[in-house]
Design a protein that fits this description.
Strand order of the largest sheet: 6-7-8-3-9-10-12-11
Structural class: alpha/beta
Order of helices and strands: EEEHEEHEHHHHHEHEHEEHHEEH
Number of helices: 12
Oligomer: single chain
Number of strands: 12
Distance between the termini: 35 Å
Helix content: 25-40%
Radius of gyration: 21 Å
Length: 348
């Protein structure tokens, strides 16, 4: 792992102008991504995950958006870069696997032509060489009979195969940063595992840094190195995989862990859920945004907690919660579906 990060995000804020005022979709997000690392960004719908990912690609519409902070890919800040710089950046330095491949692929173009077009847009090589590279990419992501299937249209592939095509397209110019926005949504669990395995193998082979955006902590359990948990536009907890799974510090993280089904226990009648709904970004609660849904709310929660390390033994494990480390370990419970807490004695 090199000292210089591939991706450096500092105090990123993204707001959108509306008739009701500015909606702050991303609020003071800071993180780094290094080569060969998988960083998972986790949270419910509306937490700011996808807006963060699109902003890192320079795809957030600037006409109606307000940006603050820094989002640097290599030496280029995508928030201030010109469109010409962003076009060079996309594909060569940073690429994205979008959530729905059926709407991301052109339905009237053969999949091979779409990947070849991507390669030729960034590489000065003959079309025949780009064609051969496309076949190799499709083989690399596990599409059988790639030289034959290169002539297929998107609707002739299954959902899992279309997602593999999107991965191949994203990797066509060997980017150093790969952003995967909900890459396993709407796929069955077997295909989900296959897609995640493809991403893991490609990360190991190319040493690319991966940002994996998902709402499901179970998806990242076998692939992530670090995890950012987002809620209402803010990072509420961040740490290594072991820190988040075995010693979670924020009540929202406890709720996400508790909602994961376990195959090694009797199935409960109903999985635990977090009560209430995420707040409207037009009218977020004062202080801790999770306060209205938290069972452990107290008077100090009306003040905004900072994102900081509460445990001196884990300086890189930070969270936004006023509870002390001792109070957290006493209050959190091993709910049905919760992962890992009992395995390492993390409950006081």
């Amino acid at each position: 792992m090199t000292d210089k990060p591939l991706l450096d995000v500092e105090h990123l804020r993204v707001g959108f102008r509306t008739e009701e005022g500015v909606v702050q979709a991303v609020d003071d997000v800071t993180f780094q991504l290094h080569a060969g690392e998988v960083l998972a960004i986790v949270g419910e719908s509306g937490s700011g995950k996808s807006v963060s990912a699109l902003t890192l690609m320079g795809l957030t519409p600037k006409e109606n958006a307000i940006f603050e902070g820094i989002a640097r890919v290599g030496d280029i800040d995508v928030l201030t870069a010109r469109e010409e710089q962003l076009r060079r950046l996309r594909g060569e330095e940073v690429a994205m696997i979008f959530q729905d491949p059926m709407t991301s692929l052109n339905p009237v173009q053969r999949i091979g032509a779409q990947i070849v077009e991507q390669i030729l847009a960034h590489r000065d090589i003959p079309s025949a060489e780009a064609y051969d590279q496309t076949v190799e990419l499709l083989e690399r992501v596990g599409i059988p009979r790639a030289r034959e299937r290169i002539q297929s249209y998107p609707h002739e592939f299954s959902g899992g195969m279309r997602q593999r095509v999107m991965i191949a397209m994203a990797l066509s110019c060997d980017p150093s940063v790969l952003i995967a926005d909900e890459p396993t949504t709407a796929l069955d669990v077997t295909i989900q595992a296959q897609i995640l395995e493809v991403i893991k193998e490609l990360r190991e082979r190319t040493d690319a840094g991966v940002v994996l955006v998902t709402h499901d902590l179970g998806v990242v359990a076998d692939i992530a190195d670090r995890i950012l948990v987002m809620y209402a536009g803010r990072v509420v907890e961040q740490g290594t995989l072991d820190e988040i799974f075995y010693d979670p510090q924020h009540p929202y993280t406890w709720g996400l862990l508790g909602s994961i089904a376990r195959v090694d226990r009797p199935r409960p009648e109903r999985l635990p859920s977090i009560p209430g709904m995420p707040p409207s970004l037009h009218d977020r609660p004062t202080g801790c945004h999770f306060r209205p849904r938290c069972r452990h709310e107290f008077a100090q929660c009306t003040q905004t907690p900072s994102l900081e390390a509460r445990n001196p033994d884990s300086p890189a494990h930070t969270d936004r919660c006023w509870l002390s480390v001792e109070e957290k370990r006493a209050k959190r419970e091993i709910a049905a579906g919760q992962i890992g807490l009992e395995a390492k004695g993390a409950i006081a």
